[in-house]
Design goal:
The complex is a heterodimer of chains A (347) and B (451).
Chain A lengths: L2 H33 L3 H11 L3 H18 L1 H10 L1 H21 L5 H31 L28 H25 L2 H32 L5 H5 L5 H16 L5 H23 L2 E3 L8 E2 H4 L3 H28 L12
Helix pairs in contact in A: 1-2, 1-3, 1-6, 1-7, 1-11, 3-4, 5-6, 6-7, 7-8, 7-11, 10-11
Chain B lengths: L2 H17 L3 H21 L2 H34 L2 H35 L6 H30 L4 E3 L5 E3 L2 H5 L2 H31 L4 H37 L1 H8 L5 E2 L3 E8 L4 E8 L2 H7 L5 E2 L14 H30 L7 H9 L2 H18 L2 E3 L3 E2 L10 H32 L2 H5 L9
Antiparallel strand pairs in B: 1-2, 3-6, 4-5, 7-8
Helix pairs in contact in B: 1-3, 1-14, 2-3, 2-5, 2-7, 3-4, 3-8, 3-14, 4-5, 5-7, 7-8, 7-12, 7-13, 8-9, 8-11, 11-13
Classes of the chains: A mainly alpha (347), B mainly alpha (451).
Chain lengths: 347, 451
């Protein structure tokens, strides 16, 4: 394995950690207006994610920074090519952050209702955007010989050579992401709260399951239809077959654990489901980092990674940084473990 | 100038300028809060604890705004400046990634504990979380400054076969001497903003006869810290920064000083308006020989003017660069005067009764923001026409695939978004200041008890 491949997997793992962690607070935002009816319940939801959401979101920034460091050419091409949706993601991230953080500053119903809707709507849209982004990366983008591309938000919603960000396939993946993170967030809220709120969260998780199961199957078939060549890696390396086994076992565990009220097991299974799906996508793409609609212009590990010396130096500080980050996370999650109590602190 | 280039430049300049209104305060306050917490811990003085809690709330609001306006910076390297990123990412990716791994994780993990964990933690552990937030935010500053320093004064790289820059020596790059001095100068500037804001609110409380005891703590802390850093800002950090510009960006120095024609015993221009068209300064007010002394340490030294360099290597916006630099230096000088006089009055025990000085301290709060912004404008306009000094021109670095129309769309979007964020932020800060520090002691994070 080359050092470029090593960094490919490091970035893939960081993105996965981001989706698993920020995924549950995004999901909590999705169900926020439906599961939490009273002000007191809404504060419980916010309290459950309040101390950790910012740290979770840092994984996005850290993954982005690491991507920039390891694959500057990929960062340059993809960020300029996905210009419009990325800017919208930024606006949504801003709105969501102030929705969470500014709501509690004023005990005024109108103020709080406004930020409730800001928080929920931005969470819902972010889930769909992130799914559609993954859909774009799997489907391929209109890269040309310059190594750049620019995608408008949509063209004709079909899979031609000049694709848009949104077409039927990427929207489908966006919906799968929304359902997946809704379930993920419901398990988390169910785990961290009790009484009516916890029951409603559990109810939403139960509703999500059949949707998640069928969408997973449909998306797998659709992906094979969109990119028939994407299964090659699975053909060459049988270890890849562990991915579908993991994904479907997790779904089975969620089906078993949710009605029994074993929220912790369901939540962990949901996390592994997300891990399976994302690692599966990374496994299928490897060693391509961004496929072109015309495969001769594919961006690969080889033609986008930074110099070998820089990548080797990076391994040293990355390992130190990751160990430190792990230590902080264990510490913070231990400090805020258990069911949410109101009455002290913010939110 | 090509319209897409102009849009992309304004896009970055606008978002970066707005963003930096928040970190300059939070980095300064992080230091001041550690000082307040340390005194509270050692003296067991509840007023210092209340003061720290009050400033933690101000810090929290600014921190949220700093984070949400900071994320776009990282994105814009790829979205708006993709050709530059492809060129320099092999080097500056190091510091940008390290910022995430070392600074953001540290800061975000302990910020939650610091802001919401006071009751769960022992006083010592809570003090430690304040120190961790301080370390995280100051580390973050270093990684960004090191990135900018590479663009100002590239070292530690080699040019690869495909024309991109790649890392040659990690330590040369990370310990770039430009970065060390720029960091010292910048962080001192942040401490000045924090100190001036703290003493301004202290003066406001004393003058309005509310929270007088807390106001005195704010002023005492703000004035002592402010005095130290106002002096450090000029000497040695500003002086060394100026030397680096003199030696490595001579056309920038000439433009900053408004020196169109080189001369021996060059004068220091105090006031005057640059006249681009005729290549001279209108209405000059100058002190003979001082510029030569400051730059080359000799009264008679020859300082090269803009005429010594080809016009295509001149910074493009000379008037704005000239004004930014003069505003920064002028305000920096006034800061020393304000803080030294305040400190003398404080030492003689007269400051809290000197109404005129309290008024000055109260009204001084906006000026460090102006000075810090002007300083960054000086650095970044002065770097022009280069995006990486001497290696890549700004006009070659922007995203060629992102049209002016798409750039304008998101620029307008950011302007609207930041207008809303700014109004919300000011409103919430106003509320916290009106609430004052005493209540913070009774009900931590006030408005939150279950209804």
């Amino acid at each position: 394995m080359t050092i470029g491949s090593l960094w490919y997997w490091i970035v893939a793992v960081m993105v996965t950690v981001y989706v698993v962690l920020d995924g549950f607070d995004l999901g909590a935002g999705v169900i926020y207006l439906f599961a939490a009816k009273t002000n007191e319940e809404r504060r419980r939801v916010l309290r459950s994610i309040g101390p950790v959401w910012d740290g979770n979101e840092v994984w996005l920034l850290a993954a982005g920074g690491t991507l920039y460091f390891a694959f500057p050419q990929l960062y340059a091409s993809s960020f300029s090519g996905f210009y419009l949706p990325l800017m919208m993601v930024l606006w949504l991230l801003m709105l969501r952050a102030i929705g969470i953080e500014f709501r509690a500053h004023l005990e005024v119903p109108l103020w709080q209702q406004f930020f409730d809707v800001v928080f929920a709507v931005s969470s819902i849209l972010l889930c769909i955007f992130f799914g559609a982004a993954l859909g774009n990366v799997v489907r391929g983008v209109p890269l040309d010989a310059t190594g750049y591309f620019f995608e408008p938000l949509w063209t004709n919603f079909k899979l031609g050579m000049q694709t848009g960000i949104l077409d039927w396939y990427t929207i489908l993946i966006g919906v799968l992401a929304l359902v997946t993170l809704t379930a993920h967030g419901s398990h988390y809220v169910g785990l961290k709260t009790d009484a009516d709120l916890g029951r409603r969260a559990k109810g939403i998780a139960l509703l999500c399951w059949p949707l998640q199961f069928f969408l997973t199957c449909i998306c797998l078939v659709a992906t094979y239809f969109v990119r028939p060549d994407i299964m090659q890696n699975y053909g060459h390396h049988k270890i890849g077959l562990l991915v579908p086994i993991l994904v479907f076992s997790c779904l089975a565990v969620m089906l078993w654990a949710t009605p029994k009220g074993k929220e912790k097991i369901a939540f962990i299974a949901s996390g592994f489901y997300i891990t399976g799906m994302l690692v599966g996508a990374a496994f299928a793409l490897y060693p391509t980092v961004l496929p072109a609609r015309d495969h001769q212009y594919d961006l690969t590990i080889a033609n986008t990674s930074a110099g070998v010396h820089g990548l080797s130096v990076g391994l040293v500080w990355w390992v130190i940084g990751a160990l430190l980050a792990l230590a902080y996370f264990v510490f913070v999650y231990r400090m805020f473990r258990g069911k949410v109590q109101l009455g002290e602190g913010h939110y | 100038m090509e319209s897409a280039l102009l849009i992309h430049r304004i896009h970055f300049a606008f978002t970066a300028t707005f963003h930096y209104l928040f970190p300059q305060l939070t980095m300064g306050l992080a230091l001041l809060i550690v000082i307040l917490k340390t005194i509270a811990l050692r003296r067991k003085d509840p007023f210092y604890d209340q003061a720290a809690r009050f400033w933690a709330k101000i810090f929290g609001i600014n921190f949220v705004l700093g984070v949400v306006t900071g994320i776009p910076m990282e994105f814009e390297f790829g979205t708006n400046w993709s050709v530059f990123s492809r060129f320099a990412g092999g080097v500056i990716g190091q510091t940008l990634a390290m910022e995430g791994m070392f600074a953001f994780f540290l800061e975000s993990s302990f910020l939650g504990l610091f802001l919401f964990g006071e009751k769960r933690l022992s006083p010592r552990a809570h003090w430690f979380s304040a120190v961790a937030v301080f370390l995280g935010s100051w580390l973050s500053g270093y990684f960004i400054i090191a990135t900018d320093a590479f663009m100002q004064y590239p070292v530690g790289y080699y040019k690869a076969a495909d024309g991109s820059l790649q890392l040659q020596s990690f330590w040369d790059f990370v310990l770039n001497r430009w970065a060390l001095w720029q960091y010292a100068h910048n962080m001192s500037g942040a401490a000045i903003t924090g100190a001036f804001v703290m003493s301004a609110i202290g003066a406001f409380y004393i003058l309005s006869g509310k929270f007088v005891e807390h106001g005195r703590i704010f002023i005492k802390t703000g004035v002592i810290v402010g005095c130290i850093f106002s002096i450090l800002q000029v000497f040695p950090t500003g002086d060394k920064q100026g030397k680096l510009v003199t030696d490595n960006q001579p056309p920038t120095l000439a433009a900053m000083e408004g020196l169109f024609h080189g001369q021996t015993a060059a004068p220091l221009l105090i006031l005057g308006q640059p006249n681009d068209a005729q290549g001279k300064i209108d209405n000059p007010l100058e002190v003979p020989g001082v510029l030569s002394m400051l730059t080359y340490r000799r009264w008679s030294a020859k300082v090269r003017g803009l005429d010594a360099f080809p016009k295509e290597d001149w910074p493009q916006n000379i008037p704005l660069l000239y004004y930014s630099y003069h505003i920064m230096v002028g305000l920096g000088t006034l800061f020393i005067a304000v803080m030294v006089i305040s400190l003398l009055l404080l030492w003689r025990g007269k400051l809290f009764h000197s109404k005129w000085m309290l008024w000055i301290l109260m009204l001084a709060a906006p000026f460090p923001y102006i000075a810090n912004t002007a300083g960054w404008l000086t650095a970044e306009l002065g770097r022009q026409p280069w995006i990486v000094y001497g290696l890549m021109r700004t006009e070659d670095g922007y995203s060629k695939t992102v049209s002016a129309g798409n750039g304008m769309f998101t620029l307008l979007g950011f302007m609207g978004m930041y207008l809303v964020l700014g109004i919300l932020g000011l409103y919430l800060l106003h509320r916290e200041i009106a609430h004052g520090p005493a209540e913070a002691a009774l009900a931590p994070a006030g408005a939150l008890e279950a209804k």
